[in-house]
């Protein structure tokens, strides 16, 4: 580009000829074009700096310190921290008398200072909870042998089927599975905790090997969860990164309010999504990831929380794009507000449904105008993509009972994300298979309010004694969705 050397301390000299005028004008136009490119790049970088968990898919843990302060900032109430005066009391309930392990009695003196006798009329219970002295339990199984006194043939006893062939019993194997799969401890931490708490010493290899049969025993229950989730009327799907060494894999989740099914896969594409969904024919709730779009449009609900984050990003832009983004953002938030009111009314209310239908028409009109106004720039392309996806945002109107957000799946993935951050990655194909199995069992038990350890112990006991696990979780049957009255 030709540069103009101008001294800004005094007026520039006027060009002497027509050719010089044309040359100056062309240079100014080129400078203006370059300035506009620089300005667009600056706006793009400013937008990237402003990205956070509130306007993108970035997790809250990666927010800048400023963003975290803004997110956590609350108006001071002027009250002291802790319980407030007059709040309802919350006390631990007394354990029933038949569940008490030991009772100690403390009586008053039999004679009062005045000389009278004291008659006992009642007592005040004071229960103290404590942990017992922990020690592992060892059972020695002696297998005898002998010889026939007549023919000399050797005879030997045999262990019963319920006796483990290894050195770890079902309780220990279940405990190791609980520590790794539920509480996300590393094998070294499990090794240290075994010695510290129980006085047991096992090598890292022995602890790792104990999970091999557990993985096989978890298979029937894992398959049961997968089959039940795929028969649900409503399910939520999501995915997150899973690492094996330096290779990037993906952990997929298909969940309901009562069940959670996980799957590891090398891909984040439609093939992996199809493997996760299988023969699922219900209503699917997801974010806007295109891998799920082979699911029928009329039974596919997009997450409004993700949509609002996308619109927050548009609203943060300067000029007309920011103004259009603000209008779309207000319409989206009103939709979520009235959608919640409609769901809380259990769907017979025509008033909320009519408002939602009007908001649907308003939202489409605003999107069409913004797409036309901004043409082929970034905001225009975003609005046209939202118009292409438009029907998938309103499935909840045709199928009441369908949530407007994908929080169910995101909550199911959160424990694994923490596990991944604290324990990094798996090292083998066996680890890739074990993690989704143990996560499926743990998350499903949590949602069913079933003890994870007792479930694991039952599975391990059956696997060791019978070689086949017949235990199954009490999974609920699918419930019909409520029927909405048409808008009047």
Description:
With 488 residues, this protein is an alpha/beta fold. Helices cover 47% and strands 8% of the residues. It contains 15 helices and 7 strands. The protein has helices spanning 18-49, 65-72, 170-181, 187-198, 204-209, 211-230, 270-277, 304-315, 320-344, 350-374, 378-388, 395-398, 407-423, 429-448, 452-466; strands at residues 145-147, 154-156, 234-244, 247-255, 260-265, 283-286, 300-302. It has a 5-stranded mixed β-sheet with strand order 5-4-3-6-7, sandwiched between helices. The protein has a two-stranded antiparallel sheet with strand order 1-2. Strand 4 (247-255) and strand 5 form a beta hairpin. The longest helix has 32 residues, at 18-49. The two termini are 65 Å apart.
Provide the β-strand percentage band.
Answer: 5-15%
For the sheet with most strands, the description reads: 5 strands, mixed
**Class by helix and strand content?**
alpha/beta
Tell me the total number of β-strands.
Answer: 7
Structural features:
488 residues; alpha/beta; five-stranded mixed sheet; 15 helices; 8% strand
């Amino acid at each position: 580009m030709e540069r103009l050397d101008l001294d800004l301390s005094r007026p520039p000299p006027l060009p002497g000829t027509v050719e010089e005028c044309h040359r100056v004008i062309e240079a100014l136009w080129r400078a203006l074009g370059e300035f506009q490119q620089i300005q667009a790049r600056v706006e793009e970088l400013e937008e990237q700096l402003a990205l956070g968990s509130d306007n993108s898919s970035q997790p809250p843990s990666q927010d800048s310190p400023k963003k975290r302060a803004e997110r956590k900032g609350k108006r001071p109430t002027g009250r002291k921290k802790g319980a407030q005066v007059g709040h309802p009391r919350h006390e631990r309930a007394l354990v029933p008398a038949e569940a008490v392990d030991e009772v100690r009695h403390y009586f008053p003196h039999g004679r009062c200072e005045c000389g009278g006798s004291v008659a006992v009329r009642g007592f005040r219970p004071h229960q103290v909870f404590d942990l017992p002295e922990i020690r592992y339990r060892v059972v020695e199984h002696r297998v005898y042998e002998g010889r026939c006194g007549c023919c000399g043939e050797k005879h030997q006893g045999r262990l019963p089927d319920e006796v483990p062939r290894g050195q770890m019993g079902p309780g220990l194997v279940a405990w190791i599975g609980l520590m790794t799969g539920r509480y996300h401890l590393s094998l070294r931490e499990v090794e240290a905790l075994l010695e510290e708490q129980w006085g047991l010493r096992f090598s890292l290899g022995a602890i790792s090997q104990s999970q091999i049969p557990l993985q096989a025993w978890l298979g029937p229950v894992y398959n049961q969860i997968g089959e039940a989730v795929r028969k649900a009327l409503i399910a939520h799907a999501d995915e997150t990164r899973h690492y094996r060494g330096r290779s990037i894999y993906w952990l997929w989740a298909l969940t309901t309010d009562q069940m959670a099914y996980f799957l590891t896969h090398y891909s984040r594409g439609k093939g992996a999504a199809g493997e996760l969904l299988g023969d699922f024919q219900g209503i699917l709730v997801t974010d806007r990831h295109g891998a799920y779009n082979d699911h029928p449009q009329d039974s596919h609900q997009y997450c409004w929380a993700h949509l609002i984050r996308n619109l927050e990003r548009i609203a943060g832009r300067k000029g007309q794009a920011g103004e259009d983004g603000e209008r779309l953002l207000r319409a989206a938030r009103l939709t979520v507000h009235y959608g919640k009111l409609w769901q809380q009314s259990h769907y017979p209310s025509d008033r909320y449904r009519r408002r939602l239908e009007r908001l649907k028409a308003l939202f489409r009109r605003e999107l069409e105008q913004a797409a036309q106004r901004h043409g082929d720039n970034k905001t225009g392309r975003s609005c046209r993509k939202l118009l292409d996806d438009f029907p998938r945002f309103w499935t909840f109107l045709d199928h009441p009972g369908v949530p407007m957000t994908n929080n169910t799946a995101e909550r199911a993935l959160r424990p694994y994300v923490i596990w991944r951050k604290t324990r990094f990655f798996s090292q083998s194909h066996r680890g890739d298979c074990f993690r989704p199995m143990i996560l499926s069992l743990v998350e499903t038990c949590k949602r069913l309010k079933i003890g994870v350890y007792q479930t694991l112990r039952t599975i391990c006991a059956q696997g060791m004694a019978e070689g086949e696990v017949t235990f199954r979780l009490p999974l609920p049957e699918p419930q019909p969705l409520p029927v909405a009255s048409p808008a009047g």
